[in-house]
């Protein structure tokens, strides 16, 4: 008996972020409270509309935290003072309005326009270290530009900090709150980094512009250097500590595989990052510039965030045989907790883990994932499914939009 396609869709959906599209980098659909005790996640919980939910990091029943009528929550930021900030849009327009839920419960608008024509982007580390301000991208001044705007949570007032004919993304506040790291996106393979005075708005570039060189912000170190993902002088993306005063770079993690995600705690003590090894994600972290530790998540990491003090990591994982789940990790002990999970109607035992093979090519071997059906006897029909480009990559997991492929494998086709 062949299973219907509906059996291959997760019972609850979680919102995902296209991190490799640099204009939308630095956003997250998960967040950790400042004390590290609570996780927030954007999910529809089976109802069809994305809302923000919270639950203890040790697991439990999710509680509705932020819901906006006729809107879907798209990204989150949790301030040091306890406010949960959410970006929401209507009908997938990406014209985000910002809302804030206070620690005592009520939610209210933070930055919005009644006509719903302004696009705002909320980074996961948009909150200042003291929790008083939130910085975000906005095209309110000019529809083609994304300026940096700072909102004061107490008064709900906002002021432009960095304006110009460019697309700017918040990359995190310095540990003392005096400066803001900003990414200027030229295209998907070319970005520059700026440091902006959080009070006066004076900005200076701290990277030397070069076409097809990436500089993706990942926060700050406690010593005042910034953390970036870059492919400067390398064919792979690597994690660097950059001195904004001298331009000197020190490698944090540089190897034969791309660093695809990275973050730093608000105090700069801890860093967490994800390395893409043959399509599989490896989570790495360090505390106080100590030794680098690693955990193989045996799947694909879609989000990674840290508490302000770096004591806990949260990450979102998907794989070929399991739908999404969210894990938290104690950075001191390495202890893992599966905080929240979804499920399919089809058991994981009936789904297929791919085999990684390499096909000789004119410019070197081409890696390829092969899914062989469990329910059929060879020879069987096969589907060649090339990924998009130029930065696209096939991963050993299915997105919610790709579960029809798992259904085809179940029906006896190789992929």
Task: List the keywords.
single chain, 415 residues, mainly beta, four-stranded antiparallel beta sheet, 1 helix, 2% helix, globular
List the helices and strands and how they pair.
Blueprint: E1 30-32, E2 38-43, E3 51-56, E4 63-66, E5 72-78, E6 84-89, E7 97-101, E8 107-111, E9 120-121, E10 133-138, E11 147-152, E12 157-162, E13 167-173, E14 179-187, E15 190-197, E16 203-205, E17 215-220, E18 226-230, E19 238-242, E20 249-253, E21 258-264, E22 270-277, E23 280-287, E24 293-296, E25 300-306, E26 312-318, E27 325-330, E28 336-341, E29 355-359, E30 366-370, H1 403-410
Short description:
With 415 residues, this protein is an all-beta fold.
Q: Kindly provide the radius of gyration, computed on alpha-carbon positions and rounded to a whole number of angstroms.
A: 21 Å
* Helical coverage, percent range: under 10%
Q: What amount of the residues lies in strands? A: 35-45%
**Spatial separation of the terminal alpha carbons:** 20 Å
| Integer average pLDDT | 93
The main pleated sheet reads as: 4 strands, antiparallel
Spans with pLDDT under 50 lasting ≥5 residues? none
- Count of individual beta strands: 30
User: Looking at the structure, what is the overall shape?
Assistant: globular
Oligomer: single chain
Structural class, from helix and strand content? mainly beta
| Individual helix count | 1
- Spatial order of the strands in the main sheet? 1-2-3-4
